[in-house]
From TrEMBL:
Pfam families: PfkB. GO terms for cellular component: cytosol. This is Tagatose-6-phosphate kinase. GO terms for molecular function: 1-phosphofructokinase activity; ATP binding; tagatose-6-phosphate kinase activity. It is an enzyme of class 2 (transferase). SUPFAM superfamilies: Ribokinase-like.
Length: 309
């Protein structure tokens, strides 16, 4: 089973405007609200790919029904540890004129040491060596940056594979624990290894350095520039496809879903990479954090050109 862990879920409020006017009244063209948070988004895309997962993590009880009802409507199993407080609402401003998305992500609820410990104990009782765990997203107040590293060490103790998608110090500390796979974007990678993010050779070298440390799969995304996949045996590159963009939010999560699907189903590195890119590309064609369509993912997969490096 695949478990996605979201420690700080979010309602994504997407506001589409023409152009942001600082200090003025901005009027929206349209808005939408999606159930989000990185791990939850991964589970949403896994469902579309036809594979079950369990959405776990921590959920604020005040507006928990918005999340739980939505996941139930998609037939996605959820098993969150509930804490008091409200899940955050993250604002995503889509500017049509500039074709940009600006994220304003809130902090979220506060988690006590005891609550975190109870969640970890419960979560560890669920998983065994047949499982794959996706750890992704930012941390709510009260949880230290060491959490992903700690969880990776505990999960490795149970021979559970982990895919990590985090940023800043939680990524740095997570990588020190050597997860099975990681999916940084180039900026997150730059926080791990000193790279020239415009230079593919520099990105590949950073990927290889991480493989040499013991991580088995390193998927580096670079928005519309495409992505690089470095494993012990292969190095692949693919350019981004020119597609109409609705919202880039969640493209990385869709990519992680493709990667998790591929690893869970024993696909080759080449197939995993192709599927991951197709999922990310299909996601940017949907509004907000709406789930991409499986037919579109298949169609894009057939158009992706993967180059071995
Ligand atoms: N503008 C775009 N045009 C085409 N493909 C894109 C675009 N943005 C993203 N993608 C696809 O999605 C993948 C993941 O995107 P990106 O590198 O932005 O992830 P990310 O920074 O982790 O995103 P997020 O944190 O918002 O989920 C890219 O490698 C690419 O395949
Ligand atoms: O604040 P974090 O946890 O880093 O990111 C949260 C978030 O931006 O990530 C998802 C897109 O990847 C959204 O659904 C959500 O709002």
């Amino acid at each position: 089973m695949i478990y996605t862990v979201t420690l700080n879920p979010a309602i994504d409020k997407t506001v589409v405007i023409d152009e942001y006017q600082r200090g003025k009244v901005n009027r929206s063209i349209n808005t939408r609200k999606d159930v989000g948070g990185k791990g939850i988004n991964v589970s949403k895309v896994l469902k579309v790919l036809g594979i079950d997962s369990v959405c776990t993590g921590i959920l604020g009880n005040e507006n928990s029904n918005f999340f739980l009802n939505y996941l139930e409507s998609l037939n996605i199993k959820s098993d969150f540890y509930l804490v008091s407080g409200e899940n955050r609402t993250n604002i995503k401003i889509v500017e049509k004129k500039h074709r940009t998305v600006t994220d304003i992500n809130d902090k979220g609820f506060i988690v006590t040491h005891e609550e975190l410990k109870k969640f970890i104990d419960y979560f560890l009782s669920l998983v065994d060596e047949r499982d794959l765990v996706v750890l992704s997203g930012s941390l709510p107040e009260g949880i230290k940056d060491s959490i992903y590293g700690d969880l990776i060490n505990l999960l490795k103790g149970k021979s559970v594979k982990v895919i990590l998608d985090a940023d800043n110090n939680s990524l740095i500390e997570g990588v020190e624990a050597i997860p099975y796979a990681i999916k940084p974007n180039v900026y997150e990678l730059k926080g791990l290894v000193d790279i020239d993010e415009k230079n593919i050779g520099s990105i590949v070298k950073a990927g290889r350095d991480l493989i040499n440390k013991g991580i088995e799969k390193v998927l580096i995304s670079s928005g519309r520039e495409g992505a690089v996949y470095v494993t012990a045996k292969n190095i692949y590159f693919s350019e981004g496809l020119e597609v109409p963009i609705e919202s880039t939010v969640g493209a990385g999560d869709a990519m992680v879903a493709g990667m998790a699907y591929g690893i869970e189903n024993g696909l080759s590195d080449y197939e995993v990479f192709k599927l991951a890119i197709a999922c990310g590309t299909a996601k940017v064609m949907t509004a907000g954090t709406e789930i991409p369509d499986i037919e579109r993912i298949k169609e894009i997969t057939s158009k992706i050109i993967v180059k071995p490096l």
